[in-house]
Each structure stands twice: as C-alpha cells, then as structure tokens.
Amino acid sequence: MTMEKKTFMAENENVQKVVALLKAIETGDTVAVGYVDADNYKQHNLTVGDGLAGFGVALAGLADYPEKARVNTVRAFGDGDFVVAQTDYNFYGPKAGFDIFRFEDGKIVEHWDNLMPYDGSKNPSGHTPFDGTTEFADFDKTEENKALVKNFVIDVLKGEHPERLTSYFNGNSYIQHNISIADGLDGLGSALETLAKQNIKMEYFRLHKVLGCGNFVLAVSEGAFAGKPTSYYDLFRVEDGKIAEHWDVMETIAPESEWKHQNGKFNGLN
C-alpha cells in the first residue's frame, strides 16, 4: 500500500482475515470462520456465549430474524496482535459497531466490541456514524498520535485537565460524527450544555486501551452516561498533531446477572 492509495483498511493479513470474518456473518462463508482458533476463542461481548460455540449460536439465531444480516466494514487497521474494525451492521437490527480482535499465531483468539442501534439519521452537521475520511496515512506518526489521544482522554474526557481542551484541536474546524453533536468545539460545547440542563452526566472513569495505525486511533474507555455503566469506543483521526475527526459508539453495560459468560467487557485490554 502506498501513502497515496485511498482505502478503508490499512492492509495486512490479519486485517484481511477480520474483514472476511465479519462479512461471513452476511454471506455464511465457512472459510473465514476457520480464522478463529476453535479451542481458545474468548468472547467479551456480554450477550454472546463464550467460545466459537457461542458465536455459532448467535449466527444461527439470525435465521429466525425477519431482516437479513448485512455487514459493511468501513475502516479497519492492525496494531500489533490486535485488529480494529468499524462496521455498519444489520445484526439483529441496524447497528453501528466497533470490533477488536486479538491474534495468536495467525488465529483469532479473543474478541471485544461495542454496538449501538442506529436508525439512519444524521447529526446536526449532516454526518453519520460511518462517513468521512477513510484514507490511512502518517504511519510513521502512529505512536505520537496514540500518545496525543491518550492524553486527550485523560485530560479532557476524564476531566483531569479540562482547561487543555482547545490545545487538542485546530481551532473550531474538527468534524464530528457523534449522532447528537454538531461539528467543531462550538457543537461540542452546545451538546454538553444541553446535557447539563437535563442533569445528565457523561463520565469517563478509566481508559482501558489505545490502538492506532497512522492517523487513526481508537480509545476504549469505561464510564457512565446518565448514571448507567457505559463502554465508550472513540475513534479519532489526527492531522498535523491535532484531532481532526471523531466517531464513537456508546454502549450501556448490561448488569452482571444478564452476562452469558464471566470474561468481562474489558478484561484483557489492560
């Protein structure tokens, strides 16, 4: 892949395997399922049973669902043994999702994700959770960009140094894909003001993982929204050392009594 090539994924063998596996939800491709280590696959989606058997049960249930499964991965990249995919799903209903897979010896051995229902609407600036830049670049700046995002989450989202907010952006120009927030710092400020008036808090308690490739960086955090335990997956595009674009998926964490395994939502990402 050249720096000029426009693509939705930073290509390597593991990334290609993940994209194929996700597409298999739609196509039923059994070859792609072979990329999973059947003996060691650990599941962190709390609504799906553990192991390859749990994944199989979830797929089998689609046969009785009125809508056909659809999978369109819009961005994907690798970071060491991990692969991140951002996907437009119809999986038991339309959803926006992020998936993280961990590989050992060329096989998928662990999976985490964040999913939220999506009704096809656009945010106040006309953006969806999926559109925007898909070109990967600045591969030599991966670690620098990951450090920037880590510091932003700690300083601003966790609230340790909120006064540093403006230093992470190039003025008011950044593009926002959160379905409820308009572009720029003005849009973010307006959304937070609306939440405050409704006495709704968006809280980040812990940053679990930062994964990146070039100009794209994903941060996985744990917190609360409106008092409910929440998992935050935030994808950032960094340009010239500043945050230029943002996508996210928020998921309410189910109570432990409803979990289908005890692997936890974030275990293994620390």
TrEMBL record:
Tell me which SUPFAM superfamilies the record gives: NTF2-like (SSF54427)
Stored InterPro entries: NTF2-like_dom_sf (IPR032710), SnoaL-like (IPR037401)
Where is each SnoaL-like domain found?
19-111
What is the protein named?
SnoaL-like domain-containing protein
Whose protein is this, by species?
Prevotella micans F0438
